[in-house]
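dumping the sequnces here before i forget
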Amino acid sequence: MKGMDRTGIPRFRVEESVLLKREVAKRVFAKEFEACRELEKSARPDSDNVDLKTPNLLISPLGLVLNRIFAVGVITELDSIGTQSEMWKARIVDPTGAFTVYAGQYQPEASIFFSAVQIPAFIAVAGKARIYEPEPGSVFVSIRAEEANVVDGEIRNRWVVDTAEQTVERLEAFSDALASGYHGEKLREYLQEKGFSFELAEGISIALERERSPEEFAKLLRASVREGLKTLDFDSGDSRGSKADQKEFVLELLREMGGSRGVDYAAFMDVAISRCIPEEVVEEVIRSLFADGQCYEPKIGIIRLVG
Amino acid sequence: MDEKIAPHLEELTRAFGDLEKTGIRAEFEKLLAFRVPPDVAKESILRKFGGKRKVLKVKDLFNNLKNFEITGRILDLGEKTIRPQEGPSKLYTGVLADETGSVMFSSWKELPGSVGDVINIKNAYTRIWQNRIRLSIGEQSLVSKISDSVLPPLSELSGSQTKKLIDIGAADFSVGTVVCVLQLSHREVLVRGRQFRIVSGVLADETGRLSFTAWIELAGIDIGSIIRIEGAQVRMFRGMPSVNILSSTKVSSVEPEEAGKLAFTFESAGKDPVPLKIEEIDSRDSMFDVAAAGNVVSVRPGSGIISRCPECGRVVQKANCRVHGKVESVRDMRIKAVLDDGTGSMSVMFPRELAEIIYGKTLEEAEQLMFSDIFKDAVYEDLKRFLTGRYLAVRGNSSKGEYGISFVAENAWVPEDDLAVRVVELLRRLGPDEGYGQDRDSQISSGGVGLA
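..and the predicted 3d for all of it:
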């Protein structure tokens, strides 16, 4: 952010000479991601240098320019949609909405992963953003997964906070841009002077030209991020990390004891306590499982996992 | 002047300046003589010599830049004749400097100036040569002498420039700096058959750290000393600058009174580096001893158990070393992973000791996995399952190459910053509730965190 920009030499124009530079995996919430649209090659400031190797880029209503994305969330749905060849479609939920993720024969690693993953689970996905517009007005934004893995609740919480941080920075730059009243080149200079990266300054100035009611989306996202942050749960004492682990452990224990066939609640509690899990934690996990419809009570005193 | 070509010449003048002096006019006429239509001729000249180009300063140079413009004063100039068998060809080499630094150059054409003159080069490019960035002036470059330049005079540019450590890079030869000695050790090295006693260690100021090597005695200087270095040489090693203290270098202690006014103390400079955004690491050619944190977005092939040549340490395939032929290879473990924090991404190399820590398996345990599985990539697959998506912090050295940043980790850990504190700060930045869109989202949110 500092070095090169201070001289007024734009970053990605200078760096275009760097071969095959890896695209950064942007952190973005589902709500902002699904509102992304294609950034046509001709609309880019460096359009003279665009060739076949230039990556496809999307732009969000807030001016985030992206090609690769890294997302962490709960996998809630998984379908095998391939007919001739293997193709997986997954839905990954974050606090603001859901990502649609695809993995097919050209993403062998991710395909293998999806063929074996258990639902629900926290998963991390790195992949390329894709846009499909079968007809004007209906746009489908998805992730073509390159890598995917199961992660724990701690990593998921951290992703939410990291993503919120980068989203808030963008929101602040965006409001700043709106308030300044500048446009185009003038706006870019203004934002860069304020310390925002060239890429973001460029993105915001393009986004502002495209959006009809830019404040509207910013407001919506702001509310959504705020709500998302509030639902994060790590305020019960200092054992934040270990608590998340304990929850995972409770769920694991329930599966181990035959949770899908039904387990006696009292017996389960005894085993859990014997393994140093506090009673409250067990109750809490069971309650949240009930709330999500992931387990039910076929008979009084018996709990059974769904699926 | 022909009506038809006038507008094209005008455009070329805008792009290149004086057409007669730069030889563009001649180039253009030549194409016209071959019946190239004027607009096509203009296009090809713009393409060949680069119409829209960036103007750079010496400090902005890095490897593989093409088609830029630079102005500098010649500090040194020499010529050598090469390839005599194909007819004499002369290469002009020297040093070019502006107020931001100095750079070695080589030119295939004679320059319109000599030592002390300011020249402007259009369509220059850069290469790495002997570990350093070299400014190249090729057949297609346009060089002109500038008589009235605002650049500092020769005496000022050729002196050693005083810099902060973070600003020292491949574009520097001789630098001066005021720093604190963080680490220092003596060792004996053998150079061209002679035994030398050298001092090496780490220097620091408020902007960063760099390693140093002294080929002279540093009397009265030890860890914690605050020193002024003048006329030190900058040496490049694996893309990393290092301060070389030679017999021509002046090293003196900074008086306590003056040291008190500095922006750093031994204590502050010695603190562990604060993790930087990868974007910031990406804005520099190299960084010594810095920290960063991000998610492992990919574990690269070549991670896991590898075989090395016992002689040279090179990775070998089928017990065949590129240099030493058939060898009794030794097993080693390493991890190459892409760490990404959303602002930048870098390829991080974890040597065995760190690989064992972050993987949670020793080399021997990994070997057992390798032998017990029919897949030869069992360890790599296991590593991917274990690491992909994880959050890691690393500390080490970064350098930028053709494929982006490569980072050699010297330490790695799982960061434990308090998320709750960050959430409170974020909620403050987001401002108060506007009661908007809340109901819509709460439903989805509860679904999303139900498992937590």
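Chain B has a mean pLDDT of 84.
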